[in-house]
Write a structure and sequence with these properties.
Elements lengths: L8 H11 L8 E3 L1 H7 L3 E4 L10 H10 L3 H6 L1 E3 L4 H12 L4 E5 L5 H9 L3 E4 L4 H15 L2 E2 L6 H17 L5 E5 L4 H13 L4 E7 L4 H8 L26 H8 L2 E5 L1 H13 L11 H7 L9 E4 L7 H8 L12
Parallel strand pairs: 2-10, 3-4, 3-6, 4-5, 7-8, 7-10, 8-9
Antiparallel strand pairs: 1-2
Bound molecules: pyridoxal-5'-phosphate.
Pyridoxal-5'-phosphate binds next to helix 9.
Length: 333
C-alpha cells in the first residue's frame, strides 16, 4: 500500500530530519478528564504550542529547506492570510529566503500586520482570495518566485507527516488518531507516516459540518466545491482544489472515517480545552476534543487527539468561553 503513495515513509523521515532544528517537538500529554470520560487512555498532542501557533510550520519549513539555492534566492509565494501564511513567512525568513504573501484588500489590518511582523513582503491586491491567487500565479510566471501551496504539495505533506512520527515515538500504542481535516495535508502526512509503521492504526479526519469540502469530495469520488460559511473552525475553511493532485487520493486511501462537528460541539471542545486542560485552542484545533465529548468516535484502544493550532481571535475565544455557540460574524474569515 505505502509504496504506491505519492509521499512515502522515507520522504517523511527525511523531512523530519531536515526540519528538526527549526521546529519544536511538541509534547504529548495524557488527559485524565477525557480518559475518564471515554473509558480509555486519551492523549493530546499539543501542536498548538508549535512556533507560529500551528503545525503549518512543519510543511512550510520542509518546502523552503528543499529549495535549490537559486530558488531560495528568488523567494517563495503563497496566498494564505492564515496559519500557512504565518508559517511560510517565518520559515522563509529563518532560512534566509523571502516570502511574499498575497492577500486581498478585505483582509483585516491585524492579519496583515502579523504576516509583516514575521518578515514577509505583503502584496495587497484585488477583493478576493481568488484575486490574491491570480497574483501568486503572476509572480511565479513573471518574477520566478516559487509557489508553496498550503496542502497539495509533496514537500508540505512530508513536513506535516513529521508530526505523525512524533506521535508514534511518544505514544506507540495509539490505536486511534484524531486529525483536524481541511485540505488534507496534515491528515495525509500523519496517516502516511503512522500507517506505514502500523497498518492497523485508525486515522479519523475531523471537520466542521459547515463547508466540509473533503468530506463532500470523498462522497462524490472526486474533488468538488462547497459553499463556505462562517465557522469557529475558520482554519478548516476553503476547498480542496478542483485540480487536487495528492491529498484527495491520499485521504481517500488512508482515512478510516471523516466525522463532522456542529458549531456548538466545536465550541464545547474549545471550552473543555481551556477550562479543563488549561489550553487556548482555536476552533480547528479543538475538533478532536469536540468529537470525543460529543461521543462521535467509536473508541478502540488508546486515542491521540492532535490539537493543531491556537491562532484564534481572543475576542472570539472569550465569547466561546462565556458560552457562545455560534461564531461572531466578520466580513472576512
Ligand atoms: C490548516 C489547518 C488545519 C487543516 O490542515 P489541512 O492540511 O488543510 O487539512 C487544521 N488546523 C489548523 C489549526 C490549521 O491551520
Amino acid at each position: 500500500m505505502t509504496t504506491s503513495l505519492p509521499v512515502s515513509l522515507r520522504d517523511i523521515i527525511l523531512a523530519s530530519e531536515r526540519i528538526s532544528r527549526r521546529v519544536r517537538k511538541t509534547p504529548i500529554i495524557r488527559s485524565d478528564a477525557l480518559s475518564e470520560r471515554v473509558g480509555t487512555a486519551v492523549y493530546l498532542k499539543l501542536e498548538h504550542q508549535q512556533i507560529t501557533g500551528s503545525f503549518k510550520l512543519r510543511g512550510a519549513t520542509n518546502a523552503v529547506l528543499s529549495l535549490k539555492a537559486e530558488e531560495k534566492a528568488r523567494g517563495v509565494v503563497a496566498a494564505s492570510t492564515g496559519n500557512h501564511g504565518r508559517a511560510l513567512a517565518y520559515a522563509a525568513k529563518a532560512a534566509g529566503s523571502t516570502a511574499t504573501i498575497c492577500m486581498s484588500r478585505l483582509v483585516p489590518e491585524n492579519k496583515v500586520a502579523e504576516i509583516r511582523r514575521l518578515g514577509a513582503n505583503v502584496r495587497i491586491i484585488g477583493r478576493s482570495q481568488d484575486d490574491a491567487q491570480l497574483e501568486v500565479d503572476r509572480l511565479v510566471q513573471d518574477d520566478g518566485l516559487v509557489a508553496v501551496p498550503p496542502f497539495d504539495d509533496a514537500r508540505v505533506i512530508a513536513g506535516q507527516g513529521s508530526l505523525g512520527l512524533e506521535v508514534f515515538k511518544d505514544c506507540p500504542e495509539a490505536a486511534t488518531v484524531l486529525v483536524p481535516l481541511s485540505g488534507g495535508g496534515l491528515a495525509s502526512g500523519v496517516a502516511a507516516a503512522l500507517k506505514a509503521i502500523n497498518p492497523d492504526v485508525r486515522i479519523i479526519g475531523l471537520t466542521m459540518e459547515r463547508g466540509a469540502a473533503m468530506k463532500a469530495s470523498l462522497e462524490a469520488g472526486r474533488p468538488v466545491e462547497v459553499q463556505e460559511e462562517e465557522s469557529f473552525a475558520d482554519s478548516l475553511g476553503g476547498g480542496v482544489g478542483l485540480d487536487n493532485q495528492l491529498t484527495f487520493s491520499m485521504c481517500r486511501d488512508l482515512l478510516d472515517d471523516v466525522v463532522l462537528l456542529s458549531e456548538p460541539e466545536i465550541a464545547a471542545g474549545m471550552r473543555h480545552a481551556y477550562c479543563v486542560e488549561r489550553e487556548v485552542i482555536e476552533g480547528a484545533g479543538a475538533v478532536g476534543v469536540a468529537a470525543l465529548l460529543a461521543g462521535k468516535i467509536e473508541i478502540t484502544g488508546p486515542v491521540v487527539a492532535i490539537l493543531s493550532g491556537r491562532n484564534v481571535d481572543m475576542e472570539q475565544h472569550r465569547s466561546v468561553i462565556n458560552g457562545a455557540t455560534a461564531p461572531i460574524r466578520k466580513d472576512v474569515a
